[in-house]
Write a structure and sequence with these properties.
The complex is a heterotrimer of chains A (344), B (717) and C (251). Chain A has 344 residues and is mainly α. Chain A contains 18 helices and 2 strands. In chain A, strand 1 (97-98) and strand 2 (101-102) form a beta hairpin. In chain A, helix 1 (3-26) crosses helix 18, helix 4 (52-63) runs antiparallel to helix 18 (328-342) and helix 11 (209-232) runs parallel beside helix 18 (328-342). In chain B, 36% of the residues lie in helices and 14% in strands. Chain B has a 7-stranded mixed sheet with strand order 7-6-18-19-20-17-21. At the B-C interface, helix 22 of B face helix 1 of C.
Chain lengths: 344, 717, 251
C-alpha cells in the first residue's frame, strides 16, 4: 500500500478537487457587500486543501456507475459547509494559522469572520436545491434532510469538545472521545460524503447505515493522524503551528492516554495547565506535555490505534463496496484507509 | 421448506428458477400425504371434491395469477396430456357476486354485476407502481358518478335520467381553481343538492377539484374546495338515504355505497393518508366500521349486506364470535381499493376443480420436475436454536420431525391420482405405498391433526449438514408448539404469536339431485355472502359436477361456510375436541338446512319447515343406503369440516395487531425466513395473494430475487 | 457434532418493508440494518495491518480498536431503539435520529445553535414551498423515476430585434397563478424592463414578452414566481442587435 496507491489517491483528489472548486466558485456571489463579505467568502476555499470530503462523495457515486455531474453539486455543498466550519473552528480554537496563512478572524476580526462563516453555510444550500433538476425532488429532498442531520451531528460533537475544554473536564474516557470524533469529525468528513455518494450512486439500493461504520473508522483514523501530525509533522507542510492542540487543551487520544497513564504529580500538573487560559500556557509547558506523551507511549499508542481503525475501515469497505465492479474510484476508496494514516 | 402451503411452494418455485442455475437445493417437508395447507383439498366418494372451505380468487391477485400462469405453461411442456392444459382451463371468471340484506320484510338479495376489467390478472404490469392514493381517490369519485347515473336512471320520475345526462353536458367547461371554486360554491348553497342531477354535477366538480388541489387538500389549512364538496355530497347522500328508507331498495343500496365511498374520501383526507409514509397502515389501529362511522358513514350503510359481506368473506370475527366483527381499517381499505379498482378480467375468478387439483398439483409436478424433493409424512415438532450469544445472531441449529410413516422400499411417495385426466390429491393417503400400510389404514391415523402422536420414527436435520436455510411455512397457529425456543428468545416473536390471532372455520358441502333453479333460486348461479350466521356464505359449485364421478345424476353442488366460534379451552386440540366440534358443525348444518336455506331455495323445504333430505345425492347402495335412509341422517353422506387444527385456522387482521406481524424480510434468526399469509406481506390479510406475496418475499430474503419492485402491489399505499 | 464447513450466512438486505408512500418516504429502507457486525474480523485485519507497520502490536491495538467497536455498536443500537420507539410518531421519518425537531413547530427554541441551524430551516421551508406545487402526473408513480414533466411552455415575443427566449417552469406550477419579475441584467447601467405576462392552463404555460425598442442588447433574466412569492421558474431573454436572420430577411 505504498507508492502506486499514494499516487492514485493524490491524482483522484486533485481531479475531483478541481472540479468541485470550479463549480463552487459559481455559487459565490460577487455583488455587494464585497469588502466585508463576498470578497471574503472565497478566501478559505481559495487556500486549497485536499478536497478529501467532496472527493469521497464523488468517488462513491462514480463507483456505483453514476456520472460525476450527478454528485457534483452535493460535493460542492459539502465543501462549502466544510469551509464554513473551518472559519468557526478557527475562532473557537483561537487558532492563528490556517493552511500557511493567518486565520480569517485574525485578518478581519471575530465578528466579520463569524458572519462570513454563516454566509458560507447558507450558500451551501443553493447547490442542494439545484439538485432537483438533475436528481429529482425525492432524492434531493432526502439529501437535504441528510445534510441537516450531518450538520446537527457536527455541531453536537463540537459542543462536546468545547464543553470539555471550557469546563476543564479531565476524566474523558476513550469511548467518550471516540463518540465525540464520530459526531464532530466523521459525519462531515467521511460518513456524510459516503452516504450521499451511495444515495446518489445506488439510488437508495444501499443501506446507508452501513456507511456509518465505514465512515466512522475511516474518519477516526483520519482525525487521530491529524492530531499526531500536529505534534510531529513538518510544520511548513502541515500549515498550522505545531503543538497547537496542546496549547488549546484539545482532548486528543494522546492526551487521554497520557492522563490515564500519568503519575499523580504529572496529572496534577496537567490539570492545572489545562485550567489556565490558552495564553498562559508556555512553550515549555507544551514541550513537557509532548515529552511526557512520548515517555508514557501515548503517541505510539495513538498511532497503533489509528492503524487498527484503518484496518477496520478497510474491512468494512469489503462488505460495503466489495461487490461493485472494479474501477478507479473503487480503488481510490479502497486505498483511503491506508492513505489517511500514511499521509503527512 | 417446512410446510407445503401456498407461501412455501411459491418460495420453492422462485428459488428453483433457471436463472439461479441450480444454486438452491430445495426440499419440502410436509405432514401427511398432501400439499396445500389451508388450500389442500381431496377427493372422496364418487371423486367428489372435498375442500377445507371456500377459496375464491380475486381479479387483483396479480402475483398469484402470475405464478399460476407460469406454472401451467411449464407444466404444459413437461406433461402435455393434462386436461387443464392452459391456465384458462383451470381458472375462469366467476359469476356474479351477491350479498344478502336484512330488511324489515326479510332477506333481500342484491346481485351486482361488475364490468370486466381490462386484460387478465397476471398480465405484465407497467414498470413502477401504478397504485397511488390519488389514483384511488379519482376512481372513487368516478364510481360515485357511475352510481349516481344509475341512481338517476332508477328514479321514479321519467325525465330524471335524461335530466341527469344533460345536466353534465350543459355545464360549460369549468377550468381553473377559481372557476371550480365558484361552481362548487353555487352547488353547495342550501337546498341545491336536493336532486340526483345536482349531486351528479357536484361529483363531477369534485373529480376535477381532486386533481387540481391534490397535494394541498391534505395539509391543514390547505385547499377547502374538495373538502367542502365531500362534506356537501355526504350530507346530500344522507338526506337521500333517509328519504329512501321506505322506498326503492335498489336505489337505497346505491346510496349506501355512495355514502360509504364518501366516508372513505373524507377519512382519507382527514387522516392525511396521501402523505403519510405508512400509507393506509396509518389507520390500522381503527376498526373498519368504526373508522367509517367516525367519518360520517350512516348506520344504515354500515349494516348493509355490502359491509357484512366483506366481514364474512374475511372471517373477520374475533374468536369466531359473530357478535364481534373486527377488521383493521387500513387492511380493509387497501383490500377494498385493490379489489374494486384494480381487478383485471373479472372481479372474482373460480377454479375448475378443487384447489388442491387446480393449484397444488401443477405446482407439485413442476417443482418435482425441477428437482425439488418432497418428504411427505414429515411433521415438524421443534425448531432448535443455537445457544444465545451476544456477538452473534441466533440461528436455527436443528429441525426435529416426526416421521409419520415410511415409504415402502424407501422411495419417493407418489401422491397424485388421475381423475378424468386431472392429477388430483386423494382424501386419504395411499396406504399401499407405505410401510405397514394395512396397519396404518386400520388405525386410520389422523396425519393432519395436531393430537396424533403415533409415528414411525423421528428425524433431526442439522444446520450445514442437512440444510443451510429454513423457510418456515407453517401457519402462525402452529408456532407456540413448534417454535418454543424462538418465542422464548425473541420478544418480537412472543408478541407476534400473542397478537396475530386466528379463528377456526366451519364448512359443509352438499350434492343435490335438483339444480338450484328448480329449487326456487331465481337468479343465475352466484357467490353470496352476508347471509344468516352460521353459514353466511354460499357458493354455487355446480361447475364441478363434470369433474366428479356421480352415478346418480347430481344437478347442483353447494358449499357453505362461516367462522366457527372458538371453543378451545386452554388452546389444546384433542381428538375428542375435534370430534365435538365436528358434531357441532353437523348439527349447525342440519339446523341451517331445516330452517334457513328455504330463504334461498324455497322449493327445497317442505311446507311446515324442514329440508327435503331426499334432495341429497349419495353413492350409498344397499345396506348403507338403508342405514342413512331418509331424514336428516342422510346428511351424513355429505361432507362437512370443522377446521380447528392450529394450522387450519384462518388468520385475522385485527385492529391494533398489524404492527406485530413480522416480515419475511426481517432477519431475526440468521438462517430462518418465515412465509405465509400471517406475515407482513404488504397486503397483510388472509388470502392466497397475500400468501404468494409472502413466498416471494421469503425468496427475496434468501436470494434477493425477485426484486421487491417486481412484487406487484408490495409498494402500495 | 462438527460441521463440514462454516455455516453459510445470509446476505444483508437493502430493504425490509414496503414503500407505502414514495413521495414522502423517498424509498427509505424500513429499519434495514443488515448483518450485525463481527468485531473479531475487524480486529484480525487491524492486527495484520499493524504487523506490517513499524509499530509493535497486540495489546494496544485490541484495546483502542475494541473501544471503537463498542462505541459504534452502541451508537447504532441507540439509534435503532429510538427509531422503533418513534415508529408511530407522526413526524417519524424512518431514520435513526432520537430527537427529531419538528419544522412545523414555530415554537422550537434553537438556542445557541440558532445561527448555524437557521439557514437549514430556511432551506426546508423553501423546499416545502416547492413540494406543495408538485402534482403527480397521470404516469405511474415510480419513486425513482424522473421528475414529473414540466408543463409545456410557449412564448410570444414582440421585439424589434432578434430575440432569443427560454422559459422554464417547475412541474405543477402550471396550476398556479404566475408572474414574472422585471427582466434584468448584470450591468448596473441597463434599466430592467418588465411586462412579461404569463397565463397558465393545465399542462401549458404561455408567456408573452414585449421588448421595448430601445432596450439595449444583452442577456436578461427574471424569476417566475407564484402568488406566494415562491420561485417557480425562470425566464431568459437575450436581445441581439448584431445578428442577421438566415436568408437575409429582416425580422
Amino acid at each position: 500500500m505504498v507508492a502506486p496507491d499514494g499516487n492514485l489517491v493524490s491524482s483522484v483528489l486533485r481531479e475531483y478537487g478541481d472540479a468541485t472548486r470550479a463549480s463552487l466558485f459559481d455559487y459565490l456571489p460577487t455583488t455587494e457587500p464585497r469588502r466585508y463579505l463576498y470578497d471574503l467568502v472565497g478566501d478559505y476555499p481559495r487556500r486549497g486543501g485536499r478536497a478529501f470530503r467532496p472527493s469521497l462523495c464523488i468517488a462513491t457515486a462514480r463507483a456505483f456507475g453514476t456520472p460525476l455531474e450527478m454528485a457534483l453539486r452535493t460535493a460542492v455543498s459539502i465543501e462549502l459547509i466544510h469551509n464554513a466550519m473551518l472559519i468557526h473552528d478557527d475562532i473557537e480554537d483561537e487558532s492563528e494559522q490556517r493552511r500557511g496563512k493567518p486565520t480569517m478572524h485574525v485578518n478581519e476580526g471575530v465578528p466579520i469572520a463569524i458572519n462570513v462563516g454563516d454566509m458560507l453555510s447558507l450558500l451551501a444550500m443553493r447547490p442542494l436545491l439545484d439538485n432537483r433538476h438533475m436528481l429529482g425532488p425525492d432524492l434531493s429532498l432526502r439529501i437535504l434532510e441528510e445534510t441537516e442531520r450531518m450538520a446537527r451531528e457536527s455541531a453536537e460533537g463540537q459542543a462536546l469538545e468545547l464543553g470539555w475544554r471550557r469546563d476543564n473536564v479531565i476524566d474523558v474516557a476513550e469511548a467518550d472521545y471516540l463518540l465525540m470524533v464520530l459526531k464532530k469529525t466523521c459525519w462531515l468528513a467521511t460518513i456524510h460524503p459516503s452516504r450521499m455518494g451511495s444515495l446518489i450512486g445506488a439510488r437508495g439500493a444501499v443501506d446507508l447505515d452501513r456507511c456509518i461504520r465505514f465512515g466512522f473508522f475511516l474518519g477516526a483514523a483520519f482525525q487521530i493522524q491529524d492530531d499526531l501530525l500536529n505534534l510531529e509533522g513538518d510544520s511548513t507542510a502541515y500549515g498550522k503551528e505545531l503543538g497547537g492542540d496542546i496549547r488549546e487543551g484539545k482532548r486528543t487520544l494522546m492526551l487521554i492516554h497520557l492522563l490515564e497513564k500519568a503519575t499523580d504529580a504529572e496529572r496534577n500538573r496537567l490539570r492545572s495547565m489545562l485550567s489556565q487560559p490558552r495564553d498562559a500556557r508556555s512553550d515549555g509547558d507544551v514541550a513537557w506535555v509532548i515529552e511526557r506523551m512520548d515517555a508514557h507511549g501515548s503517541i505510539d499508542y495513538a498511532r497503533q490505534v489509528a492503524h487498527g481503525l484503518a484496518g477496520a475501515a478497510r474491512h468494512e469497505f469489503t462488505g460495503l463496496y466489495g461487490h461493485l465492479p472494479d474501477s478507479r474510484d473503487k480503488r481510490f476508496i479502497e486505498a483511503l484507509p491506508a492513505w489517511v494514516i500514511e499521509r503527512n | 421448506m417446512v410446510g407445503g402451503g401456498c407461501a412455501a411452494l411459491t418460495t420453492a418455485f422462485e428459488l428453483t428458477r433457471p436463472e439461479h442455475m441450480g444454486r438452491y437445493e430445495v426440499t419440502v417437508y410436509q405432514m401427511g400425504w398432501r400439499l396445500g395447507g389451508k388450500g389442500a383439498s381431496g377427493r372422496g366418494v364418487a371423486d367428489r371434491v372435498e375442500e377445507h372451505g371456500l377459496h375464491l380468487w380475486m381479479g387483483f391477485y396479480e402475483n398469484a395469477f402470475r405464478l399460476m400462469r407460469e406454472c401451467y405453461a411449464e407444466r404444459q411442456e413437461a406433461f402435455p396430456n393434462c386436461r387443464f392444459a392452459d391456465w384458462r382451463d383451470a381458472f375462469k371468471p366467476a359469476p356474479d357476486v351477491g350479498v344478502a340484506d336484512r330488511t324489515a320484510e326479510g332477506w333481500e338479495f342484491w346481485l351486482s354485476h361488475f364490468p370486466p376489467g381490462q386484460g387478465e390478472p397476471g398480465d405484465p404490469t407497467r414498470s413502477g407502481s401504478p397504485f397511488t392514493v390519488l389514483g384511488y381517490l379519482r376512481q372513487s369519485v368516478m364510481l360515485i358518478g357511475e352510481l349516481l347515473r344509475s341512481a338517476g336512471a332508477m328514479e321514479s320520475s321519467p325525465g330524471a335520467a335524461g335530466r341527469a345526462r344533460t345536466a353534465t353536458q350543459d355545464r360549460s367547461a369549468v377550468s381553473g381553481p377559481e372557476a371550480l371554486a365558484a361552481a362548487a360554491d353555487s352547488l353547495l348553497r342550501y337546498g341545491q343538492l336536493a336532486t340526483t342531477a345536482a349531486i351528479l354535477e357536484a361529483s363531477e366538480i369534485l373529480r376535477e377539484a381532486i386533481d387540481l388541489f391534490f397535494p394541498q387538500m391534505f395539509f391543514p389549512g390547505g385547499a377547502a374546495v374538495p373538502t367542502q364538496l365531500i362534506e356537501g355530497l355526504a350530507a346530500a347522500a344522507q338526506c337521500q338515504l333517509e328519504r329512501l328508507v321506505a322506498g326503492d331498495r335498489e336505489l337505497r343500496r346505491v346510496w349506501q355505497v355512495i355514502d360509504l365511498i364518501l366516508a372513505i374520501l373524507r377519512g382519507a383526507t382527514r387522516s392525511g393518508l396521501a402523505f403519510d409514509p405508512r400509507g393506509f397502515d396509518a389507520i390500522n389501529d381503527y376498526e373498519w366500521r368504526e373508522w367509517l362511522r367516525l367519518n360520517g358513514a350512516s348506520e344504515q350503510s354500515l349494516d348493509s349486506g355490502f359491509m357484512r359481506g366483506i366481514y364474512d368473506l374475511a372471517f373477520a370475527f374475533e374468536d369466531g364470535d359473530v357478535k364481534r366483527p373486527r377488521l383493521a381499517a387500513g387492511v380493509a381499505l387497501r383490500g377494498a381499493m385493490r379489489m374494486f379498482f384494480t381487478y383485471r378480467g373479472a372481479l372474482f375468478w373460480r377454479m375448475s376443480g378443487g384447489m388442491g387439483d387446480t393449484v397444488f398439483a401443477p405446482l407439485f409436478q413442476v417443482l418435482r420436475q425441477r428437482g425439488v424433493r418432497f418428504e411427505f409424512f414429515h411433521r415438524l415438532r421443534n425448531v432448535g436454536l443455537s445457544p444465545h450469544n451476544a456477538n452473534e445472531p441466533s440461528c436455527v441449529r436443528a429441525l426435529e420431525f416426526d416421521v409419520q410413516a415410511r415409504i415402502k422400499g424407501g422411495g419417493e411417495y407418489q401422491p397424485l391420482v388421475d381423475i378424468h385426466g386431472v392429477p388430483s390429491w386423494p382424501s386419504r393417503p395411499d396406504y399401499r405405498q407405505l410401510a405397514n400400510g394395512p396397519t396404518l389404514a386400520r388405525e386410520d391415523r389422523a396425519f393432519e391433526a395436531i393430537w396424533e402422536t403415533r409415528r414411525a420414527g423421528r428425524k433431526t436435520l442439522r444446520v450445514t449438514d442437512d440444510f443451510d436455510f429454513v423457510v418456515l411455512g407453517v401457519s402462525v397457529g402452529a408456532l407456540p408448539d413448534v417454535a418454543r425456543e424462538l418465542i422464548e428468545r425473541e420478544p418480537r416473536w412472543r408478541d407476534m404469536v400473542r397478537y396475530v390471532k386466528t379463528v377456526p372455520t366451519q364448512a359443509f358441502q352438499i350434492w343435490m339431485r335438483k339444480d338450484v333453479r328448480e329449487l326456487g333460486w331465481p337468479h343465475p348461479p352466484v357467490n353470496l355472502s352476508g347471509f344468516v350466521e352460521p353459514f353466511d356464505t354460499w357458493a354455487d359449485m355446480s361447475h364441478l359436477i363434470p369433474e366428479e364421478s356421480w352415478s346418480d345424476p347430481v344437478r347442483a353442488i353447494a358449499y357453505f361456510c362461516s367462522v366457527l366460534p372458538d371453543a378451545a379451552v386452554d388452546g389444546a386440540v384433542t381428538e375428542r375436541f375435534q370430534q365435538e366440534q365436528r358434531e357441532q358443525v353437523r348439527a349447525s348444518a342440519i339446523r341451517f338446512l331445516d330452517r334457513d336455506v328455504g330463504t334461498l331455495w324455497p322449493k327445497a323445504t317442505r311446507g311446515g319447515g324442514g329440508f327435503c333430505w331426499d334432495l341429497l345425492a349419495s353413492e350409498d347402495r344397499g345396506k348403507k343406503a338403508k342405514m342413512h335412509g331418509s331424514g336428516e341422517r342422510r346428511f351424513d353422506t355429505q361432507y362437512w369440516a370443522a377446521s380447528v387444527n392450529p394450522t387450519d385456522r384462518y388468520v385475522l387482521s385485527l385492529p391494533g395487531s398489524m404492527g406485530y406481524r413480522l416480515s419475511p424480510l426481517e432477519i431475526t434468526f440468521d438462517n430462518l425466513t418465515i412465509a405465509g399469509d400471517w406475515t407482513a406481506t404488504g397486503l397483510d390479510s388472509g388470502c392466497i395473494e397475500s400468501a404468494v406475496m409472502s413466498g416471494l418475499l421469503a425468496a427475496h430474503a434468501i436470494s434477493r430475487r425477485p426484486a421487491l419492485e417486481d412484487i406487484v402491489g408490495y409498494d402500495h399505499p | 457434532m462438527s460441521a463440514s464447513r462454516p455455516r453459510i450466512r445470509r446476505v444483508p438486505l437493502e430493504r425490509t418493508g414496503p414503500i407505502r408512500n414514495p413521495v414522502v418516504s423517498a424509498a427509505r429502507p424500513a429499519l434495514g440494518f443488515g448483518l450485525p457486525f463481527d468485531p473479531r474480523e475487524g480486529l484480525r485485519t487491524a492486527e495484520r495491518l499493524a504487523a506490517v507497520s513499524n509499530a509493535a502490536v497486540q495489546g494496544a491495538v485490541e484495546c483502542g480498536v475494541k473501544t471503537a467497536y463498542t462505541v459504534i455498536d452502541e451508537y447504532m443500537r441507540r439509534g435503532r431503539e429510538a427509531a422503533s420507539r418513534h415508529r408511530e410518531h407522526p413526524n417519524w421519518r424512518g431514520d435513526m435520529n432520537d430527537n427529531r425537531y419538528s419544522y412545523s413547530n414555530p415554537n422550537t427554541a434553537w438556542g445557541p445553535m440558532g445561527p448555524f441551524i437557521a439557514p437549514w430551516m430556511q432551506a426546508m421551508q423553501a423546499w416545502m414551498c416547492a413540494m406543495s406545487a408538485f402534482v403527480p402526473g397521470a404516469v405511474p408513480q415510480n419513486p425513482w423515476g424522473q421528475c414529473a414533466t414540466s408543463p409545456a411552455v410557449s412564448v410570444k415575443v414582440f421585439s424589434r430585434y432578434p430575440t432569443e427566449i427560454s422559459a422554464y417552469v417547475d412541474p405543477g406550477a402550471d396550476a398556479m397563478h404566475l408572474t414574472a419579475d422585471a427582466l434584468s441584467t448584470d450591468r448596473a447601467d441597463v434599466r430592467p424592463f418588465g411586462g412579461a405576462v404569463i397565463t397558465s392552463e393545465c399542462g401549458h404555460v404561455r408567456v408573452s414578452v414585449t421588448v421595448p425598442d430601445d432596450q439595449p442588447a444583452g442577456r436578461y433574466r427574471a424569476a417566475i414566481k407564484d402568488a406566494a412569492g415562491c420561485r417557480r421558474g425562470e425566464l431568459t431573454v437575450e436581445i441581439s442587435k448584431l445578428e442577421t436572420p438566415p436568408s437575409g430577411r429582416t425580422v
